[in-house]
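Dear Dr. H.,

I hope your travels went smoothly. While you were away I took the liberty of generating a structure for the chain from your last submission, since the lab meeting agenda had it listed for discussion. I wanted you to have the full record in hand beforehand rather than looking at slides cold. The sequence, exactly as received, is reproduced here:
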Amino acid sequence: MSKRQLAMVMDLNKCIGCQTCTVACKTQWTNRNGREYMYWNNVETYPGTGYPKNWMELGGGFDAAGDLQPGVIPNLEADYGVPWDYNYESLMGGMSDSNNFHPHVSPTWGPNWDEDQGAGAFPQDNYFFYLPRICNHCTNPGCLSACPRDAIFKREEDGVVLVDLDRCQGYRYCIAGCPYKKIYFNPKISKSEKCILCFPRIEQGLPPACAQQCVGRIRFVGFLDDEESQVYKLVHKYKVALGLRSDYGTQPNVYYIPPTESPAKFDAEGKIIEGSTRLPIEELEKLFGPAVHDAIKTLKDEMKKRKETGVSELLDLLIAYQHKDMFRLDNNYYQEVAKAAKRNPLAPVDTRYIAGKFTQAGGHH
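The corresponding predicted structure, in token form, is as follows:
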């Protein structure tokens, strides 16, 4: 058990699906060297197929008795899709026989392949919302339990889950064990890689790149034991931030404010059906469990209270008037950790990940 646990809360009522978070992560961490297909952060349209394809049906996690469940390793081409690029250089340099803009391969699948499709019949009752996903840095990670090499670990300082690349031999049990399929195999080095919660930024008091760049200000980051943080208040005080598929038994530390509003349905004559709502509560129960009912009730009660009295701490938190106030990262804490370990306070406090950063390819495939 880690001494402290960093967590993130995402407000799905504010996500506009702009993919700025995805691009921020991709350009900072996964734009080359076997990581081209990796999206440590992605924003899915829900309901939808997701990334990798049908990830919720691929197993992993734990059963009610706490035993690790078998999982499937997604296929690179069929479930992730082969990354493609476009003929920019030939078009810009006049080297192409045509002026057509086209990919260098014929794409069959990729992230956001079914973006904005959703479910229902347009225009009567169609619906969707955006679901951003990163590694949940679980308290009980399926990837960690599945690894026979002890190559995956939770940092004692903050609970961030990392891969020790020197120990990893590319068995890929971790991918099968993660029910969220948020750990990836790097074919260039035959090792697994995943979201690191931007820990080099966190340790210097900076939020993760996905949170820093978020246009909609949907992401709050802080320690779960910090009672003054937005994360603590949203998760523990008001209980409106819920874990994604907590039934997997991994105790995820990325939480979501569920969507509370959706348009009314139309009847066959195009008239509004009074009192109807397009977003089925069953879909939200599937993602966030039965607690979603109380969370939505609390959110709507606070909105009503705000209209009547002008006061609501919860809504003030969610509106996020000041961007800097969304992140309580306590870099002084990391400096004390470094000082106690007699390390340079400007260097990352964990050396296992850094030491294996340029490791050679493993001997097992």
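Two observations you may find useful: The first strand starts at residue 6 and ends at 11. The radius of gyration is 22 Å.

With kind regards,
E. W.
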